């Protein structure tokens, strides 16, 4: 599939600090540096996988992009226009261009709304339908596009299975024909067989559309490998490596990526027995007080004294393989 | 909604079919129907009081004070010779007005403030909830006495007093519900989609309402009793206007010699409170999508 190299989203040095307040006057005593200088680009029609362990700031990145949070600093260029500090009333017209799919298909659907209302509500919010009939047809079409029977429209969420609920979430995300969908762990709450169905559905939707892009947030490395055009690895609020899944899995360059990939079990007992796993020492430091310089230096097997002082920036080491590590040549 | 032969969906107006379903579900349960029947009966009595009452509720038959039940006075007469049944019938009007409007005022004010406080959070929440805490610190009867004492007696002022007296509970409960519910992903989805605060609050309200419905039905009875308390203290409905609460209090000294004076209005209050509770429970179940098809 030929893709125009048009950028749909460009995130520049995004920072999101959550203040920790104390006392009656809500004095700010510290900040949780959930996202600390993240930069990446998504082209039209591209899927960018965002992986990392729990608490590394993946979800926060996603939520900053849809402006559920107002970023502390940095730029979010959506189709070339910076939306990072737009006031909410100006933001509204942009909101139909992106949508969010949540991890938990149970809490993401209003239990007291019928399936049809849930899926069609964004159409009403943005006044995208002219008449009741038009609305009905659009919602029916959305149901069909995600493989749900439109006759289930008057049912309520609790009458659906987890997979069906996730399909409803996807139908809702598609309702305003967005150009970017942020999938926040869309399959982690589902059975493996259903996971495959949902992934295939997302893949089909992308292929059937003109330039739909995904930001696919996950901690499941194999799902990301299958699904993404490029993968970004996050550690403690920063991106440490971005490249194609093939390069990342065959030739990881960053010490953190190497450790992360070595944590994937191999489904062959013989290999598994002899395989050498890279186990990082210690725990992930607190994002309230991250280490100076490279955030990984406290745990990195190849750290040198300079790592304590220099904040490594992402740099291209050839063929679009970007790494943030001063030890990688 | 159903499928016809061509597999297309026949669209009925969802609002009408939803209402029809609600009525059907409610009518399927005998207890609920009985409850609705009792309420309907009392409403008719309140409307047609002048036709139903054989005597003027205020007229004192000086020759027949404290008469036992008889053909002329089916429930006897009270200590000043007024017909008890007629007073009971006219009292339905006051009690209904107080119950329904008192709770309406309390519910609207309380739930509205609670919704706003819970949704906006922060300093809006702090200001509203501290005021509510201050109100909650005063026992409701004292609060209502204070309001009545300032405004004076009479039906309208009693309604305001009862409304304010019961309002804090609604506000607290609503605020607590909304604070929890707004963390749900479906509310985040609405925010992401650019829904207005108004629309989001509507979703929150629909989800927070069912537990409050139970409070409303219990409070309908409480409001009737509160009016009785206020009337007893002389700051409620002004005598000699008949009200059930006032009748109970008037008859309390004669509980052993003439129990009917208190038992008749007491029984009426019990019946109406019971009916409101049954209907309230039925309504809550009928509105719960999770119980669809099981009722």
Short description:
The complex is a heterodimer of chains A (329) and B (295). Chain A is α/β, with parallel strands linked by helices and 329 residues long. Chain A is built from ten helices and twelve strands.
Care to describe what's here?
The complex is a heterodimer of chains A (329) and B (295). Chain A is an alpha/beta fold and 329 residues long. Chain A folds into two domains: 237 residues, P-loop containing nucleotide triphosphate hydrolases (Rossmann fold), CATH 3.40.50.300; 62 residues, no CATH class. Helix content of chain A is 29%, strand content 23%. In chain A, a hairpin with a 2-residue loop joins strand 9 and strand 10. The two termini of chain A are 33 Å apart. Chain B is mainly alpha-helical and 295 residues long. Chain B has one domain: MetI-like fold (Orthogonal Bundle), CATH 1.10.3720. Chain B has a two-stranded antiparallel ribbon. In chain B, a hairpin with a 5-residue loop joins strand 1 and strand 2. The longest helix of chain B has 37 residues. The radius of gyration of chain B is 23 Å and the shape is flat. The N terminus of chain B is likely disordered. Chains A and B meet through helix 2, strand 6 and helix 3 of A and helix 8 and helix 9 of B.
């Amino acid at each position: 599939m030929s893709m125009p190299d048009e950028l749909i989203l460009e995130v520049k040095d995004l920072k999101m600090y959550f203040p920790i307040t104390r006392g009656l006057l809500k004095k700010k005593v510290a900040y949780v540096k959930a996202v600390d200088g993240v930069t990446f680009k998504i082209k039209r029609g591209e899927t960018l996988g965002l992986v990392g362990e729990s608490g590394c700031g993946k979800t926060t990145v996603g939520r900053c992009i849809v402006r559920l949070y107002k970023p502390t600093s940095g730029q979010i260029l959506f189709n070339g226009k910076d939306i990072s500090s737009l006031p909410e009333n100006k933001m509204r017209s942009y909101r139909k261009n992106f949508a969010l799919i949540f991890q938990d298909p149970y809490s993401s659907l209003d239990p007291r709304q019928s399936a049809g209302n849930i899926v069609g509500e964004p159409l009403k919010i943005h006044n995208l339908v002219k008449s009741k009939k038009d609305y009905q047809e659009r919602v029916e079409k959305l149901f069909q596009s995600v493989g749900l029977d439109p006759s289930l429209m008057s049912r309520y969420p609790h009458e659906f299975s987890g997979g069906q609920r996730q399909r409803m979430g996807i139908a809702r995300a598609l309702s305003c024909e967005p150009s970017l969908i942020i999938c926040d762990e869309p399959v982690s709450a589902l059975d493996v067989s259903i996971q495959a169905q949902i992934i295939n559905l997302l893949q089909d939707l992308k292929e059937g559309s003109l330039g739909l892009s995904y930001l696919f947030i996950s901690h499941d490395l194999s799902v990301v490998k299958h699904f993404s055009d490029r993968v970004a690895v996050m550690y403690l609020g920063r991106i440490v490596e971005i490249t194609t899944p093939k390069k990342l899995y065959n030739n990881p360059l960053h010490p953190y990526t190497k450790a992360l990939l070595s944590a994937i079990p191999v489904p062959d007992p013989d290999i598994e027995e002899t395989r050498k796993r890279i186990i990082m020492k210690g725990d992930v430091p607190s994002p309230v007080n991250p280490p100076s310089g490279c955030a990984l230096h406290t745990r990195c097997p190849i750290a040198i004294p300079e790592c304590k002082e220099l904040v490594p920036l992402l740099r291209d080491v050839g063929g679009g393989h970007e790494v943030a590590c001063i030890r990688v040549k | 909604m159903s499928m016809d032969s061509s597999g297309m969906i026949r669209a009925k107006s969802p609002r009408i079919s939803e209402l029809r379903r609600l009525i059907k579900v409610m009518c399927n349960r005998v207890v609920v129907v009985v409850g609705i029947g009792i309420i309907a009966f009392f409403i008719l009595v309140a409307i047609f009081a002048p036709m139903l009452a054989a005597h003027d509720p205020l007229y004192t038959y000086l020759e027949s004070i404290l008469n036992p039940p008889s053909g002329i006075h089916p429930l006897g007469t009270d200590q000043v010779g007024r017909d008890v049944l007629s007073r009971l019938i006219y009292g339905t009007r006051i009690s209904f007005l107080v119950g329904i409007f008192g709770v309406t005022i309390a519910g609207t004010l309380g739930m509205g403030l609670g919704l706003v406080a819970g949704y906006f959070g922060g300093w809006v929440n702090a200001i509203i909830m501290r005021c509510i805490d201050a109100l909650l610190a005063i026992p409701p009867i004292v609060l209502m006495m204070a309001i009545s004492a300032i405004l004076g007696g009479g039906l309208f002022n009693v309604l305001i007093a009862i409304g304010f007296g019961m309002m804090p509970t609604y506000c607290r409960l609503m605020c607590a519900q909304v604070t929890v519910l707004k963390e749900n992903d479906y509310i985040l989805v609405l925010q992401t989609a650019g829904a207005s605060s108004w629309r989001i609050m509507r979703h929150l309200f629909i989800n927070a309402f069912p537990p409050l419905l139970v409070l409303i039905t219990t409070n309908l009875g409480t409001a009737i009793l509160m009016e009785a308390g206020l009337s007893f203290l002389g700051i409620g409905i002004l005598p000699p206007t008949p009200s059930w609460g006032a009748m109970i209090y008037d008859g309390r000294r004669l509980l052993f010699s003439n129990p009917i004076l208190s038992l008749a209005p007491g029984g009426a209050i019990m019946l109406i409170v019971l009916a409101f509770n049954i209907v309230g429970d039925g309504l809550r179940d009928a509105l719960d999508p999770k119980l669809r098809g099981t009722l």
